[in-house]
Design a protein that fits this description.
Elements: E1 2-7, H1 25-41, E2 46-49, H2 53-66, E3 70-72, H3 82-89, E4 97-102, H4 106-115, E5 126-132, E6 135-145, H5 147-153
Helix pairs in contact: 1-2, 1-5
């Protein structure tokens, strides 16, 4: 199974609550570039997003480029963990490819627990992890793309 973990894009601090923080114009532009790049290299079975606005908006931009719909799941909120990941991937086989859009620190922590890699996903960054779906530990970090690199590639 390939799991693509993506942190939401750059978000505004000007919102009535954390749940309603939207992407900035810069965040939208960078994600548009990311969508162009990811369309060339990814095929996914599903795109999942945290219910927080910035994560949903991020997933929508990328999903549109990948010609997918977005599935909003609370498991990708701030409480994201290996255990909540198990519920998200249930029913998918080892050939599946899923894009998961969430938040730091939990999304980086899950990648670290799965792979042993010490990473801190920047806003709009994405990593690819190969994993056997039954044993979510022992995954292999295959690659990481930062927003700056995706801007250059776009």
């Amino acid at each position: 199974m390939k799991l693509y973990f993506m942190r939401h894009g750059e978000a505004s601090d000007d919102a009535p609550s954390d749940e309603l923080r939207p992407l900035t114009d810069t965040g939208r532009l960078r994600l548009s570039n990311a969508g162009k790049v990811l369309k060339k290299i990814l095929t996914v079975n599903a795109v999942y997003a945290s219910p927080r606005l910035r994560a949903r908006q991020t997933a929508e931009i990328i999903a549109q480029a990948l010609e997918q719909d977005v599935i909003v799941r609370d498991e990708l909120n701030f409480n994201f963990s290996i255990e909540t990941l198990k519920s998200l991937i249930m029913g998918y086989d080892e050939e599946s490819r899923l894009l998961l859009v969430g938040h730091n620190p939990s999304i980086s922590e899950v990648v670290q627990q799965m792979t042993g890699a010490n990473i801190n996903l920047k806003t709009g960054a994405i990593v690819c992890v190969d994993v056997y779906p039954i044993a979510l530990k022992g995954g292999t970090l295959k690659w990481m793309l930062t927003p700056r690199l995706m801007d250059e590639l776009a």
